[in-house]
Amino acid sequence: MCTFKYFLGEVILVFLFCITDSQGAENCHFALATLQSQFRGEELRGVPYLNSNQREKYWVEFKHGRAWIPGKGPLSTQRAKGFSGHGIGIFVMDRSGNFYVAAAKQNDNFYHSSLVAGEPVAGAGEIGVYHGVIFYLSRTSGHYTPGPRQMGQVIGRLHALGIDTKNIIYAEY
Q: What pLDDT score does 103 carry?
Protein backbone atom coordinates (compact mmCIF):
# COMPACT_ATOMS: atom_id res chain seq x y z
CA MET A 1 0.00 0.00 0.00
CA CYS A 2 1.22 3.50 -0.77
CA THR A 3 -0.54 6.52 0.69
CA PHE A 4 0.01 10.27 0.65
CA LYS A 5 -0.55 12.11 3.90
CA TYR A 6 -0.39 15.81 4.69
CA PHE A 7 1.29 16.02 8.06
CA LEU A 8 2.10 19.31 9.77
CA GLY A 9 3.07 21.12 6.60
CA GLU A 10 4.95 18.20 5.08
CA VAL A 11 3.87 15.68 2.53
CA ILE A 12 4.99 12.27 3.67
CA LEU A 13 4.96 9.38 1.27
CA VAL A 14 4.30 6.27 3.31
CA PHE A 15 5.18 2.91 1.86
CA LEU A 16 3.99 -0.06 3.81
CA PHE A 17 5.29 -3.32 2.47
CA CYS A 18 3.34 -6.08 4.14
CA ILE A 19 3.54 -9.67 3.03
CA THR A 20 1.04 -12.24 4.27
CA ASP A 21 2.47 -15.73 4.67
CA SER A 22 0.64 -19.01 4.08
CA GLN A 23 -0.62 -19.05 7.72
CA GLY A 24 -2.11 -15.55 7.34
CA ALA A 25 0.55 -13.75 9.40
CA GLU A 26 1.61 -10.31 8.20
CA ASN A 27 5.26 -9.36 7.84
CA CYS A 28 5.71 -5.60 7.50
CA HIS A 29 8.96 -3.75 6.93
CA PHE A 30 9.20 -0.47 8.80
CA ALA A 31 11.95 2.08 9.41
CA LEU A 32 12.81 1.66 13.08
CA ALA A 33 13.69 4.18 15.77
CA THR A 34 16.18 2.90 18.34
CA LEU A 35 16.43 3.66 22.02
CA GLN A 36 18.53 6.79 22.58
CA SER A 37 21.99 5.97 23.99
CA GLN A 38 21.48 7.80 27.30
CA PHE A 39 18.64 5.38 28.15
CA ARG A 40 20.50 2.14 27.46
CA GLY A 41 20.78 0.04 30.60
CA GLU A 42 17.88 1.90 32.25
CA GLU A 43 16.31 -1.41 33.30
CA LEU A 44 19.31 -1.82 35.62
CA ARG A 45 18.36 1.51 37.22
CA GLY A 46 14.79 0.48 38.06
CA VAL A 47 12.89 1.20 34.83
CA PRO A 48 10.48 -1.70 34.33
CA TYR A 49 10.88 -3.64 31.09
CA LEU A 50 7.93 -5.88 30.23
CA ASN A 51 8.46 -9.42 29.01
CA SER A 52 6.20 -10.83 26.29
CA ASN A 53 3.65 -12.17 28.80
CA GLN A 54 3.43 -8.86 30.68
CA ARG A 55 3.27 -6.91 27.41
CA GLU A 56 0.10 -8.73 26.31
CA LYS A 57 -2.12 -6.73 28.66
CA TYR A 58 -1.10 -3.55 26.77
CA TRP A 59 -1.70 -4.98 23.27
CA VAL A 60 -4.46 -3.25 21.32
CA GLU A 61 -6.44 -4.82 18.49
CA PHE A 62 -8.42 -2.95 15.88
CA LYS A 63 -11.87 -3.99 14.72
CA HIS A 64 -14.94 -2.17 13.47
CA GLY A 65 -12.84 1.00 13.07
CA ARG A 66 -11.98 1.18 16.78
CA ALA A 67 -9.20 0.30 19.20
CA TRP A 68 -10.03 -2.56 21.57
CA ILE A 69 -8.51 -4.16 24.63
CA PRO A 70 -8.99 -7.87 23.94
CA GLY A 71 -11.54 -9.40 26.29
CA LYS A 72 -12.39 -6.05 27.91
CA GLY A 73 -13.88 -3.69 25.32
CA PRO A 74 -13.08 -0.36 23.65
CA LEU A 75 -9.84 1.35 24.68
CA SER A 76 -10.06 4.68 26.51
CA THR A 77 -7.19 6.82 27.80
CA GLN A 78 -9.41 8.95 30.05
CA ARG A 79 -7.46 8.00 33.20
CA ALA A 80 -4.04 8.54 31.66
CA LYS A 81 -1.77 11.53 32.16
CA GLY A 82 0.86 12.02 29.51
CA PHE A 83 3.27 14.83 28.73
CA SER A 84 0.46 16.52 26.80
CA GLY A 85 -2.02 16.34 29.69
CA HIS A 86 -4.85 14.31 31.16
CA GLY A 87 -6.63 11.80 28.94
CA ILE A 88 -3.50 11.10 26.89
CA GLY A 89 -1.61 7.79 27.15
CA ILE A 90 1.59 6.50 25.58
CA PHE A 91 1.90 4.03 22.71
CA VAL A 92 4.47 2.14 20.71
CA MET A 93 4.18 0.32 17.43
CA ASP A 94 6.66 -2.54 17.34
CA ARG A 95 8.66 -3.75 14.35
CA SER A 96 5.77 -6.06 13.36
CA GLY A 97 3.12 -3.31 13.39
CA ASN A 98 1.55 -4.30 16.72
CA PHE A 99 0.32 -1.48 18.97
CA TYR A 100 0.81 -1.35 22.73
CA VAL A 101 -0.84 1.38 24.81
CA ALA A 102 -0.42 2.38 28.46
CA ALA A 103 -3.82 4.01 28.95
CA ALA A 104 -3.42 4.83 32.65
CA LYS A 105 -0.52 6.19 34.67
CA GLN A 106 1.63 3.22 35.68
CA ASN A 107 4.31 4.91 37.78
CA ASP A 108 6.80 7.74 37.36
CA ASN A 109 9.40 5.61 35.61
CA PHE A 110 7.24 3.67 33.12
CA TYR A 111 8.21 4.79 29.62
CA HIS A 112 7.76 3.89 25.95
CA SER A 113 10.81 1.67 26.34
CA SER A 114 9.03 -0.23 29.15
CA LEU A 115 6.38 -1.47 26.74
CA VAL A 116 8.90 -3.16 24.39
CA ALA A 117 11.83 -3.79 26.75
CA GLY A 118 14.03 -1.23 24.98
CA GLU A 119 13.71 -2.87 21.55
CA PRO A 120 13.58 -0.66 18.40
CA VAL A 121 10.12 0.59 17.44
CA ALA A 122 8.35 1.53 14.21
CA GLY A 123 6.56 4.33 16.05
CA ALA A 124 6.12 5.81 19.52
CA GLY A 125 4.36 8.75 21.06
CA GLU A 126 1.22 9.83 22.82
CA ILE A 127 -2.32 8.78 22.04
CA GLY A 128 -5.78 9.92 23.01
CA VAL A 129 -8.62 7.42 22.71
CA TYR A 130 -12.25 7.71 23.80
CA HIS A 131 -14.41 4.57 23.65
CA GLY A 132 -12.13 3.10 21.01
CA VAL A 133 -11.98 6.19 18.77
CA ILE A 134 -8.49 7.62 18.37
CA PHE A 135 -8.68 11.42 18.51
CA TYR A 136 -5.05 12.42 19.16
CA LEU A 137 -1.56 11.24 18.17
CA SER A 138 1.88 12.70 18.66
CA ARG A 139 5.40 11.41 18.24
CA THR A 140 6.42 12.63 21.69
CA SER A 141 8.96 10.15 23.02
CA GLY A 142 12.26 11.22 24.49
CA HIS A 143 13.39 7.61 24.67
CA TYR A 144 13.05 7.00 20.91
CA THR A 145 12.69 10.47 19.32
CA PRO A 146 10.73 9.12 16.33
CA GLY A 147 10.71 11.29 13.24
CA PRO A 148 8.02 12.18 10.71
CA ARG A 149 8.72 8.91 8.89
CA GLN A 150 7.75 6.87 11.95
CA MET A 151 4.58 8.94 12.43
CA GLY A 152 3.74 8.33 8.78
CA GLN A 153 4.18 4.60 9.36
CA VAL A 154 1.86 4.74 12.39
CA ILE A 155 -0.81 6.61 10.44
CA GLY A 156 -0.45 4.27 7.46
CA ARG A 157 -0.66 1.19 9.67
CA LEU A 158 -3.75 2.47 11.50
CA HIS A 159 -5.39 3.17 8.16
CA ALA A 160 -4.50 -0.34 6.95
CA LEU A 161 -6.09 -1.74 10.13
CA GLY A 162 -9.37 0.02 9.34
CA ILE A 163 -9.03 3.17 11.45
CA ASP A 164 -10.41 6.41 9.95
CA THR A 165 -7.35 8.64 10.34
CA LYS A 166 -8.70 11.84 8.80
CA ASN A 167 -10.19 13.25 12.04
CA ILE A 168 -7.23 12.49 14.29
CA ILE A 169 -5.39 15.53 15.67
CA TYR A 170 -1.66 15.15 14.98
CA ALA A 171 0.80 17.05 17.14
CA GLU A 172 4.52 17.42 16.52
CA TYR A 173 5.51 17.30 20.20
A: 83
Q: What counts of helices (H) and strands (E) characterise the chain?
A: 3, 14
Rounded average pLDDT per 10-residue block, the chain, 173 residues: 39 48 64 96 95 96 97 91 78 97 79 96 96 96 94 95 95 75
The full length of the chain comes to 173
- Whole-number Å distance between alpha carbons of 67 and 82: 19
- The angle at the Cα of 37, spanning 32 to 43, to the nearest 5 degrees, equals 95
DSSP state, 24? S
Residue 105 CB coordination number (10 Å): 14
Burial class (CB in 10 A: 0-12, 13-18, 19+), 117: middle
- All structural domains of the chain with their residue ranges: 30-171
Judge contact between 77 and 129, C-beta under 8 A: yes
